[in-house]
Amino acid sequence: TLSADDITQAGLQSAQQTLNDQQESDIDSDKVAQMQAMLASGSLQVDTEQLASDMLSFFQN
């Protein structure tokens, strides 16, 4: 059974891989790293229901 943390980590890994695959990106990789650190430390609250919904929408398009 996957936990919310597993799903979040998988999403972050997917986002990081996408960043690595793109030569030029309008995504701020420093901001991504900051958000990853906040998630890891528990200082960022995540609405897992909304996150799951947004991830499904993103990957279905």
TrEMBL record:
Keywords: Bacterial flagellum biogenesis, Cell projection, Cilium, Flagellum, Repressor, Transcription, Transcription regulation. InterPro entries: Anti-sigma-28_factor_FlgM_sf, FlgM, FlgM_C. This is Negative regulator of flagellin synthesis. SUPFAM superfamilies: Anti-sigma factor FlgM. The lineage of its organism: Bacteria, Pseudomonadati, Pseudomonadota, Gammaproteobacteria, Enterobacterales. Responsible for the coupling of flagellin expression to flagellar assembly by preventing expression of the flagellin genes when a component of the middle class of proteins is defective. It negatively regulates flagellar genes by inhibiting the activity of FliA by directly binding to FliA. Belongs to the FlgM family. The keyword Repressor applies. It comes from the Bacteria. One of its GO terms (biological process) is negative regulation of DNA-templated transcription. Residues 12-56 form the Anti-sigma-28 factor FlgM C-terminal domain. The keyword Transcription regulation applies. NCBIfam families: FlgM_jcvi (TIGR03824). Pfam families: FlgM (PF04316).
